[in-house]
Design a protein that fits this description.
The chain has 1091 residues and is an alpha/beta fold. Among the domains are: 98 residues, no CATH class; 144 residues, no CATH class; 200 residues, P-loop containing nucleotide triphosphate hydrolases (Rossmann fold); 69 residues, no CATH class; 213 residues, no CATH class. 43% of the residues lie in helices and 16% in strands. It has 37 helices and 34 strands. The strands form 8 sheets. Strands 13-12-14-15-11-16 form a 6-stranded parallel sheet, sandwiched between helices. Strands 17-22-21-18-20-19 form a 6-stranded parallel sheet, with helices on both faces. Helix 13 crosses helix 36 and helix 23 packs antiparallel against helix 24. The longest helix is centred in the C-terminal third of the chain and has 29 residues. Pfam families: DEAD (PF00270), Helicase_C (PF00271). InterPro entries: DEAD/DEAH_box_helicase_dom, Helicase_ATP-bd, Helicase_C-like, P-loop_NTPase, SNF2-like_sf. This is ATP-dependent helicase HepA. It comes from Burkholderia vietnamiensis.
Length: 1091
Amino acid sequence: MAAVRLAVGDFVQISAAPYAGWGIGKFLGATAGIGRVQYFDAPGAEPPPIVEYSLMNIKPVRLPAQTRVYRLHSTGRWQVGRLIDGENAVLFVQFPNRDAVNVDAADLQVRWNRPLRDPLPLLINEATETPFLADARSAFARQVALQYAAATGVTAALSSSIELVDYQFEVVRRVLTDPVQRYLLADEVGLGKTIEAGVIVRQYFLDTPPESARAVVLAPRALVSQWRDELTTRFGLGDYLDDFLYVVSHEDAEEFEDQLENTGLLVVDEAHHLSRFGDKHESALYRLLQVHAQCIPRLLLLSATPVLSDPEGFLRVLHLLDPVAFPLDDLDGFKRRIATRQVVAEVVAALVPENLWSLTVELERLQEAYGEDIVLMEKIDALRTIIDTFPDEEDEAYLSALADLRTHLVECYRLHRRILRNRRKSLQWATPRRAGLKRVQFKSDGADRWRRHIEELRLCLNHLNTLPATLRSALLEHAVNPRELMSVRALLEKLGVYDDDALEIAGAIDRSANRMRDGHERLDALAATVEHILGTPNAQVVVFCSERVDADRAAERLRHLLGVQVVRHEVCADIEEDDDSQLAWQKFLSAPTKVRVLVCDARAEEGVNLHGGRKVAVHFDMPGSPNRCEQRLGRLDRFGTGDPIVSYALQDESNPDEVAWIDSLDAGWQVFNRSVASLQYLIESASQTLSEEWLARGTIAILDHNAILAGPNGLVESELKRIDLQDALDALGEQVSDAIDLIGERDQAWREWRVAFNGFAGKALGFGVQYDGRRPTNDDADEAFRIVYVLRHGVPQTLIPMGGYLRTFLQSIDGDVANDGSNSPLTHRYVFRRQNALTRAARAQGVRVLRVGDPLVKSLEAFCNYDDRGRAFAMWRVDREYEVQDPSGADLYFRFDFIIRPAAFVATLNGRGLEAQSILEQVLTRKSQALFAPLFIRIWVDGAGSIISNPSEFMAAPYNDIWKGTRCDFNLNPRRWRDLPHAVQTSWLRSWPVLCAEARRHAEVTVRQSEAYCQHVRQALTTLDREVCLRHAQTESRLARLEGAHRQRELDERASDDALCAAIRSALAEPEIDLDVAGAVFLASDSPFEQ
């Protein structure tokens, strides 16, 4: 390949990191194959250091039309223009006032793609822009900074199409502000673990350069399509799927092993499936994760399964999270930890202020059980001493000692501080409640014959030798639900039962069951029930059937009755992505007034979300497992709004086993009144026992089973109490952070955000807006819109070169929409009001909520940072009634807009790798942003250097270049700078650079001495100190019971946390004071310019 010839003065780019993102520079020459490149910051600014790099990586650049260029004129003044045309050595440039000329490229400069370090040189060199642009840019930058502050750096939460909920945001915040991002998200079922994980996945892609980002989500096969849909519609990550973001089923994970080696984030959904020893796919997946999980820097395990349900399986999950704390070869030790936690859990539940006079008993229990815990004994003694003084329940010392003891117990005896668990009990508002069961009774023709054969087979099998557990369970399920398409005779033969009598009876059962299934009685009951329910306004019905054939028949019958109001749920794994047939049933969700009935088979019991609105569940038949009933209702009572869920059961009075079983589900397990997801392992063990008892005793066994389960002292309530107490130790406490309130306030300020965005993107930069409907005509209206790059007669009206636009704004462009030619690309659809992006119709259309974290806003932020327009302004302000004080005929005032932020820092981690370095830097930034919101201070300084504490209304009024009464403003463009009156030139501009620098120095000193600045710093440091004290207390509590490698690891993390806090303290104590805008305002009583 021939070498490219470069001449001194050519515009070039360096193609290698870290300079590839620095933009365009000037070639200064080369020596021995090493080229020198000089970048340009701003007119009058100190030039950046010269970069030396291999000539192989230095490439010539042709400037695109509309590129903003700078020229130092022979008069000594800087000129700012835009490129019209040309290449090579001569370029055609449009300067202000229609001054278009050919200019040697060597005489032009182009800003690099680095943030403007200081706008003051622009003001000094009279390279100013209209105040309108400065005000528009400032308003946009302020709104962006306020959103960052409210989100504490978790911009993925703001820019996702989700409701902003406190407990979910707290989970996300804890993960993303921890240098060790390895967590088990253990919220109870239906509370939104997928949303929490989705926000974290989105934040990962926001924080990581696309070329190095790779994330993998492992999920059961039934949930893969749901994950893909959520990541696309809620989190805007559809463009990343299958290139940088992979959703893989548990069963296919082995084929994906190579991808895990370079993964930066791994999410494992339904992680408790990994504990299934008998499943070869899950066992293989677990072995795979054992190899790779410890090398992946970010790990999220998702599981709602409580620890008491399956200690061995839970240990396997926790081992992936932390192999040091949870070795697989110490199951007995893990079980002891769980057992010792029970006493602690019961005491912690009792440690509430109103139990003041009964606390002594609980303290004695602790002393008996944990007398060797010296720190615990000290805290007990401290609390007992206060109790002995007979305090009130509101006594501060009493409350403090009680909280101190509770904190110590929770930190010592919780399983792991990186298990985050929210519970439905404390978040009852978050999901629709279950409102009980109504039964619809009918009698099947032929049920008596089928029932007689079932009893004959049960008695016959009792005389045989030991039967497989699988057979007992299957027979019980068939007895309580004969709709299941199962050949009893084939099952006996498959499991090795060849007794002639049993096989003959089984054949009779199959024949009578088929005849009973063909009957119309159950379908009649269904039709009458659905018709009755639809009499309730806005009600929608989900019909659950166990078998596809029943669902097909039910849908056909209901369509005959109700027509197009009925749809059949289908699962089509092989339909092309652009085939809408797979979405037909989703009209039940997107058009609830038109489609009111959805008929499902068992395939819809997992991986389908049907919540929201007034949903009613109709169980065409009842599965033989409470877990499957839970799965069905879990489709309807998930996180979000909705009416209480009422269930209807079609109950065949001819089948006593079915009646008794529904009684058991209703009164014993109470599955129609509350979630039983936490009882899944109790359900499995109880079902095994019941199947044995039923084979021996028949229907009476189901009735006795119900009696054991039900009641305040029954097996279910006792187990729930144990689980509840244990979960309380690991659950997240009451949310004390006000972060979600700040986010909510900022989110509700969408009208202010809309004004700032439209003012900057539309009016200042010249982007067009294309609305889906009518343009909003009042403040409360909000229509979906797209941003469009504007061209007229082939000439860009948008003030960004097309090449720069495509490069910077590429991720915001909707590649699937038909644009009006490639020269007018359209962005994705957006709305400003969050609720308008959350409807099912909006999600189906890909509507996004426009906030920080979205590619469009991020691109505009980048433009704000590297473009100098709007950073400096100057104007001549006239009021014919104004009394000028200065003899020059104009009074001079400077305006300086400062933004105060935590100081930037670069973390150093000895030998821990680039990923760990990146995570730590992000954590430092988020923590400092949470403690120190950006502070905006505007300082006015007069021409003599005095601070103007209370600027007049005339001085501070918004820019207005149209005469309004006696007032009008005149932007000082290059011509007007030259045309300023001689007296002004000699009075103010004679020492203009010194005057500007002195005014800026006085302004910055004033900022540092201001009460607002000092109080902001003090408050941030005080909050940090409180957090450090709390973390130290929690760490000391944990260390009190740790030993060996686990203790050493805790000590290492404490040292790391201390170093992190020291870095944050330094950033808060000496924050950055950035000059965002510098302006000069000349106040006068008349205008020296032509009108």
